[in-house]
């Protein structure tokens, strides 16, 4: 993903938000089960072109819109993940 690394280098963001299991899995080279654990709103770090970047992984909006008894993601996002990510972003923008 040389082109993506270059775009990140040009933009130099304070935080990168990753949306969804598949993108998280590819971006970090993870298994499905570990990728699901990453979708918790906490900050992860990945070195890109020699610079440690702050990465926050979140569930894809499409899965959050599907409110069914079999889908735990909307409730988990509302009650847990959104609060974590809000705190993480506040910490990151204050630096």
**Class by alpha and beta content:** alpha+beta
Side by side, the strands of the main sheet go 1-3-2
The main sheet comes to: 3 strands, mixed
Instruction: Please estimate the helix content.
Output: 40-55%
**Unreliably modeled segments:** none
Gap from first CA to last CA: 28 Å
Averaged pLDDT, please? 95
Rg from Cα: 14 Å
How many domains, as an integer? 1
Kindly report the oligomeric state of this protein: single chain
Order of helices and strands: HEHHEEHH
Tell me the fraction of residues in β-strands, as a range.
15-25%
Tally of individual helices: 5
Number of strands: 3
Judging from the principal axes of the Cα atoms, what is the shape? Answer: globular
């Amino acid at each position: 993903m040389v082109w993506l690394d270059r775009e990140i280098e040009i933009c130099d963001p304070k935080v990168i938000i990753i949306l969804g299991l598949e993108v998280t899995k590819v971006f970090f080279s993870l298994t499905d089960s570990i990728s699901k654990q990453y979708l918790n709103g906490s900050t992860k770090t990945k070195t890109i072109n020699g610079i440690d970047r702050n990465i926050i992984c979140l569930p894809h909006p499409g899965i959050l819109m599907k409110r069914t008894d079999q889908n735990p993601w909307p409730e988990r996002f509302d009650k847990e993940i959104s609060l974590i990510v809000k705190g993480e972003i506040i910490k990151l923008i204050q630096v």
